[in-house]
Amino acid sequence: MADWIKKALTRRVRNREVPPDPRLLIGVKFTIAMTIILSALEIAHLAFTSKWNSEIFAAITGLTGTVSGILIAQKT
Asked: Mind listing the pLDDT tens digit for each residue in 32-68?
């Protein structure tokens, strides 16, 4: 898991690769893990209560936007 995240966040400047900050890698790994956990929680909530939980979905949406923003901003 770490290799593709590090590769996605590595910048290329003048034919030289600049690795990302280790704290950024940890933060991205954490947000991806939380998105997966919250998705599983939403699925379990749907399975047991047959109702949609908008608070969990809002957290998933926020984390997805955060990860997307980090990946897009790091490449520019």
From this structure: 899 899 999 999 999 999 999 999 999 999 988 988 8
Q: Which residues pair with 13 in a beta bridge?
A: 16
Q: How many structural domains is the chain composed of?
A: 1
E strands, 1-76, are 11-13, 16-18
Please tell me the distance from the alpha carbon of residue 38 to that of residue 23, in angstroms, as a whole number.
22
- Whole-model pTM: value is 0.76
Query: Residue 53 contacts by C-beta under 8 Å, 6 or more apart in sequence?
Result: 42, 45, 46
> How far apart, in Å, are the Cα atoms of 41 and each of 14, 47, 51, 60?
44, 10, 12, 10
